[in-house]
Batch of 2 targets.
Target 1
Amino acid sequence: MIDLLLPYIVEFDTFGKPQLGFLTIADEQLPFKPQRLYWIYDTPDNAERGGHAHKENKNTLICIQGVVIVSLEDCDGNQLDFVLDNPSKGLFIPAGYWLDFKLSNQAILLCTASMSHDPEDYIRDKDEFLNQ
């Protein structure tokens, strides 16, 4: 059983072959029903994004193209690092993790969120996050 309080790699069903291309489906593998989808693209090489945590919102990050290096940190200072470089895998991020990530040149990062956008759900000060 998967612990929904810890980050983990989600593997999506993928069909196809090199001669025709591939189809990947993100359906029942997602640990929540997305309330919001957004994507990040046209980034310069090694662009750094994130710099926040969520109080309640959960996310799944899927690198559609390129490479995204994700660093997560919990309130105790424990760090987890992930490399997203395959569109058939995503990273589930529960609430309560500080998120930083770097995108390769021309990476496309698809993000699913468990909540609609709420500015009050963000923690943008890392010291505040670590001292909660």
Target 2
Amino acid sequence: MEGQIAGILLATFTTPPQVDLVSTRFPSDQMTTKTDHILSCTQRHVSLGDLENAVNELDKVKGQASFTVEDWKKSAIERISVDRALRAIKVECSIINANLGGKVSASS
């Protein structure tokens, strides 16, 4: 419990690196900095509701961090699939409603 409270306080007073302020080129020995940058970009995409680009960013993560984010990536990919199916269903319903609406109007 104390660790969670300390973590919440630490997260409140620290900020992740800004995407625009971090250089896109990293020396090979700064893998942590590169991972932080990728995670910051991912967080930005998620906050904008762009899960596809968030998953694409996470594909760039290497090492232990890639293992850590694997479950989240899998869930995000499943969510993307569900969203695509939902959009397709909504389009089909719109087409059916338009067709039925046109037939009803024509017979009146």
